[in-house]
Amino acid sequence: MGSLFRSEEMTLCQLFLQSEAAYACVSELGELGLVQFRDLNPDVNAFQRKFVNEVRRCDEMERKLRYLEKEIKKDGIPMLDTGESPEAPQPREMIDLEATFEKLENELREVNQNAEALKRNFLELTELKHILRKTQIFFDEAEHGGVVSQMADPNREEEQVTLLGEEGLRAGGQALKLGFVAGVILRERIPAFERMLWRACRGNVFLRQAEIETPLEDPSTGDQVFKSVFIIFFQGDQLKTRVKKICEGFRATLYPCPEAPADRREMAMGVMTRIEDLNTVLGQTQDHRHRVLVAAAKNIKNWFVKVRKIKAIYHTLNLFNLDVTQKCLIAECWVPVLDIETIQLALRRGTERSGSSVPPILNRMETFEDPPTYNRTNKFTKGFQALIDAYGVASYREMNPAPYTIITFPFLFAVMFGDTGHGMIMALFGGWMVLKEKPLAAKKSDNEIWNIFFGGRYIVFLMGLFSMYTGFIYNDFFSKSLNIFGTYWKVNYNWTTVSSLPSLQLDPNGTDYLQRPYPIGMDPVWQLSENKIVFLNSYKMKISIIFGVIHMIFGVVVGLWNHMYFKKRINVICDFIPQMIFLLFLFFYMVLLMFIKWIKYAPTNEEINGPYCAPSVLITFINMVLFKANVAPSEVCDPWMFSGQLGVQRALLILAVLCIPWMLFAKPFLLMRNMKSKMHQQLNNHGTENGDVEGGAGAVQQNAGTVQGGHKEEEQHDIGEIFVHQSIHTIEYVLGSVSHTASYLRLWALSLAHAQLSEVLWNMVMRNGLRYENWYGGVILWVVFALWAVLTVGILVLMEGLSAFLHTLRLHWVEFQSKFYMGAGYTFQPFSFEIILDSAQATVED
Amino acid sequence: MKICGPKYALCGLVLSTWGIIQLVLMGAFFFIRSVALIEDVPVSEFTSLNEFYTKIDAGYTQNAFNCWIAACIYIVTFLLSGHQFYVNSRSSLSV
What we know:
The complex is a heterodimer.
Chain A: E1 10-18, H1 19-32, E2 36-37, H2 52-74, H3 93-145, H4 165-170, E3 178-186, H5 190-200, E4 206-211, E5 216-217, E6 224-225, E7 227-235, H6 237-249, E8 253-255, H7 261-317, E9 321-322, E10 328-336, H8 340-354, E11 361-365, H9 379-391, H10 402-416, H11 420-435, H12 437-443, H13 448-455, H14 457-474, H15 495-500, H16 532-565, H17 569-600, H18 617-625, H19 645-689, H20 696-710, H21 712-743, H22 746-764, H23 776-816, H24 833-845
Antiparallel strand pairs in A: 1-10, 1-11, 2-10, 3-7, 3-8, 4-7, 5-6, 9-10
Helix pairs in contact in A: 1-7, 1-8, 2-3, 2-7, 3-7, 5-6, 7-24, 9-10, 10-14, 10-22, 10-23, 11-14, 11-23, 16-17, 16-21, 16-22, 17-19, 17-21, 19-20, 19-21, 22-23
Chain B: H1 6-31, H2 49-94
Helix pairs in contact in B: 1-2
Keywords (chain B): Membrane, Transmembrane, Transmembrane helix
Membrane topology (chain B): Multi-pass membrane protein
Protein name (chain B): Ribonuclease kappa-B
């Protein structure tokens, strides 16, 4: 097991694989997931690589599987997901798989095609059925009206039928041919259709329409559409062509409709029987399709895994170099040093499986490249590591802040979120997610917010527990205090004093106070006091600064571990020591002042050490920086906390300020001197090595020397860059120390806001349920409690929790990590089937 | 009989569990005259110490009983949403 504090030690390896064994070996490595392959043919495009054909075949198989999956989903058939991951099949099995998928796809396509044709047929028949039924109504109406009854008289010639009947003919009208067309059109097109007909035919046609109540299925899209039946009466051939054109334009389907009622009845009977037949055939087709899909659904997940694995293997093989003899493949990969044994075992397994006799060779290589950063995580540290990596991936072998974050993150969060009740809700939620980890993870929800919460379940759980603790210290339980040990304050006033005065003071220097503090946390009496906020502010501000300064000092110390690990003595001398002095002499001194004030001043002491004379820490600190002396509030008091304070403060300040030029100039000067001495050496070497026989190492240096000499300008540039860099670094640190210390006051501010908000919520909402002096108050309380609970969870736990979380994140990223963290690395991305399958699953679900 | 979906039912279950626990406890605290809750006790005008004591006493007792009444209603809510939860989980299984 590698160290938790730094990323894993990595090495670049060369891997020689025999061509036949390569597939099996890479498959084993994929199962292991500890190797990151490098692309050895970066200038070759995707289509010119060796195994492009295989990758394409896999793509094709995947496409077929996706088609199958889509069809399965359409039918709502549950897919069997055992969650197991079958091994990557041998390359020769690929042909079998391809054949299976091909067969399935063709079968399904055929079935679908047939089904579509049948459905189209079915649609036509249903439409015809509706036409016959609806037009029957039109004709019946007409018959009752008795006007156009003769139109369909079979005894007459068509030409003899007149629009106005016998009377019209007698009145001198011409005998006219009256025709009609019937069809079906989408319901939303009706108004436009009607208007168009009216305009194009100048009102000489007669349109009747009726809606089909049941929606019809469109066979090509499968959507449910509403349609209407229409019938158009017109006169003459010209109008007929015109009407037909318009119908065509509006995508209306026209159906032949016999004129005689008897024919219509006969046709309707025929249509009905054909619909019946079609229904049975359609049912059988559906059944067949269902059977095919159910059979496929059993295996589809398994197939997906297999195909994706094959594809990943060939994709990886494409990254390899081919040896000149074409007998072996050469790969380069980053591996963790500790896992070389396991990798070699896996390679041996792969060779055995492929039946090859030549073992693969794993060769360590020297390189100047920066290796990737690989932090081994488990389910507990994963969330915390993710928080760190979101800011920037650690440089190779840099101190990893994640282990410290595990404690500091929930703690600083809890300082802002201190309420036992709210912490309990959070801890219960986190604890539930932790307990039900496996079933919840197996659900694989694609809800983003849920996944964020679930990924951080251990963080949430710890934050909840820590908040319960700080809530206990603040003595806040849904903004109410718990009186566990009994308050240590006492009210000794009599009735007349209490009833006559609006507010009273309890003197801590007397019988009102037991002269012992409450055993743990805040005394519950503060909940009822007027000056609770004033009292708590002073306490919370101080602890915020104390935590902050300790946190920052720790950050600088972690920086020291970095310098020591990378053996950069120059950084220890020029960065760490002045930084530490600056921080300790100014800000840690202020922390000490707070402790002195807490210890030295008390109301029971004589006046010089009493509350009235206690000097303000903040004012003292400001005066110290401004080089001013403290002023006592009156003659009785001493303006200083200890004797000689003024001198000590001045000395501390001067030393701290002296650290600034130290930080600013020491490093660039030292670097410059080193460089100069190196140059001298090289020049000297150059002189002596002329004619030297064993100039192996010397020659290299000599070369380097001439190269450097040739780039003198660049060197000047380098020095300038170092200066600029160092000055930025220094300014950032000095200004940062001030602003970061102040920034930790957010611990106090958010904690105050949280406590106040929860108190306001109780007073404004919950109290409404407790005002009633009757039994129905219970019912009102029932409603009010629900409201209060929802607001508590929504505002106080969720929103305030989010805000406290973000502030904690900031304190870690900016205030803590800026003291030591480079974050200039890149992550180790091993070739692992698990990761590939997971991401493939995720993209499919999107 | 199905009234609401599974999410509402779960919500109701969680809320009523919380309600039962907290209201029973709050009732107990009112009953033992917890000072922390004194600001929540309804007290109208009073002129003497004795009057104050009787009024605040009555207020504490009333609030304690009100809390327990609300807790009892939450037991009903709990049973109701529990039933709904059961109905929902069974119907989702049968699909």
